[in-house]
């Protein structure tokens, strides 16, 4: 429910018609990919199953959605907006995978503890 509410807030803040570039959906999915990558990298090895389910499929699954991506792509295509549709497809893939990778990289816990001189 929280993920859906967050998504709705962003959709209201950055509205778009069916035949215009879906910037809000792109932002939502890229941010969600980054956050999930960071959480997986940082918490998944030690988090209990209930927390993984709550944050992954629960919060972020309802925040991001493949169906919104697909509907936006099909709507742009049906309106004859092929260049924006293809740009949206490419940006979603490149930025989404990039954000997930960045989240995984930045979410890694540090393995060394700095030494302090006394």
Descriptive notes:
With 118 residues, the chain is an all-alpha fold. Helix content is 74%, strand content 0%. It is built from five helices and no strands. It has helices spanning 2-13, 23-43, 49-63, 66-78, 82-107. Helix 2 packs antiparallel against helix 3 and helix 2 runs parallel beside helix 5. The longest helix has 26 residues, at 82-107. The model has no long low-confidence stretch (mean pLDDT 90).
Quick overview of this protein structure:
The protein has 118 residues and is an all-alpha fold. The chain has helices at residues 2-13, 23-43, 49-63, 66-78, 82-107.
Number of helices: 5
Rounded mean pLDDT score: 90
Rg (CA only): 17 Å
| Overall 3D shape | elongated
Q: List segments where confidence is low: pLDDT < 50 over at least 5 consecutive residues.
A: none
Helix/strand layout:
Blueprint: H1 2-13, H2 23-43, H3 49-63, H4 66-78, H5 82-107
Comma- or semicolon-separated keywords:
118 residues; mainly alpha; 5 helices; elongated
